[in-house]
Design brief:
This protein has ten helices and seven strands. The chain is α/β, with parallel strands linked by helices and about 290 residues long. The relative contact order is 0.20. It binds S-adenosylmethionine.
């Protein structure tokens, strides 16, 4: 399916490689199609098990929802960007029943995940690499959890998102950062094989991008989490089951994969997350 991709932003630079090397013989092999098509295909294959696997995403969404309880929202639409099965919006609605009047629109690349979203009535398949749809102009609340890093140019899209907020509108964001998956990086270096983990954005780059577009951070923290799988194979399998296994790189060969796993330390998968909640300035600086 071809998704709408408006030309709101200049064309993005080539995208980074995906998270998980496909195992030899896997149907999820590298293909030269656009990265977002691969991302969609991988999430769609695992849509049925996403909520079951996404315990970290669920916990973080709940935390975000709680932090949004008392935000003074101006009038305007709201949206969950890269909403998937709606974990963030479900948490927002649990903490902010006032949003039930007009629930956040659910934008996502993957129709199969949106089909499992209880807010499907406000769902729209959408490729966020092309910017936001016009109906989100002057948004009161834009939320996004574990999705921005999948886009071709996260910093440019984040600037664009802040630009679409109404004065006094809120951005609520969680995104994995560079520094995550240290054990994978270390194993790849020790095994002398390419690390095919998705290169993740740097926290300061994202915060600067948001601030340059007029966001005033109210809550900005880097959080560390460890994921339960405690060896390389379990970690890669978990990412695959989550659907987070798209790659623009050719997969590692069987020998490379075995070397990688042999050097993977017996430690959980580590995440570094940026949690950013900020408000769009009511007036442009200097005015
Ligand atoms: C790890 S899931 C997170 C889903 C949800 N926000 C959560 O916290 O559970 C990443 C989501 O980003 C979506 N995504 C990735 N690239 C996208 C794009 N270019 N446009 C829209 N959605 C995208 C995927 O389809 C997937 O639903």
């Amino acid at each position: 399916m071809t998704l709408p991709r408006p030309s709101a932003l200049p064309s993005a630079p080539p995208c980074s490689p995906g998270l998980v090397p496909a195992e030899p013989g896997s149907p999820e092999l590298f293909s030269p199609e656009p990265f977002s098509s691969q991302v969609r295909d991988h999430f769609s294959r695992r849509a049925a098990s996403y909520d079951h696997q996404a315990r970290l995403q669920q916990g973080v969404a709940w935390r975000l929802g709680r932090l949004c309880r008392d935000l003074p929202l101006p009038p305007g639409p709201s949206a969950d960007l890269g909403a998937g099965s709606g974990l963030l919006s479900r948490a927002l609605l649990a903490h902010r029943p006032d949003l039930q009047v007009e629930p956040p629109r659910q934008l996502d690349l993957c129709p199969e995940l949106l089909a499992r979203n209880p807010l499907a009535a406000s769902a729209r398949p959408w490729d966020l690499n092309g910017g936001l749809p016009p109906e989100l102009d002057g948004a009161a609340l834009l939320g996004s959890s574990f999705a921005l890093h999948w886009l071709d140019d996260p910093a440019a899209q984040l600037r664009h998102w802040v630009g679409r907020l109404a004065p006094g509108g809120w951005l609520v964001l969680v995104v994995p950062l560079a520094g995550s998956f240290a054990s994978w990086q270390a194993a790849a270096a020790a095994a002398a094989v390419p690390c095919t983990a998705l290169p993740l954005p740097a926290g300061p780059t994202l915060v600067n991008a948001a601030c340059s577009a007029g966001l005033e951070p109210h809550h900005c923290r880097q959080l560390r989490f460890s994921q339960a799988p405690c060896d390389g194979l379990a970690s890669l399998r978990w990412l695959r089951q989550l659907g987070a296994s798209a790659s623009r790189q050719p997969p590692l060969g069987g020998g490379q994969l075995r070397r990688l796993l042999a050097h993977w330390p017996a430690s959980p998968l580590q995440w570094q997350l940026l949690l950013l909640i900020g408000q769009k300035q009511r007036q442009a600086r200097g005015s």
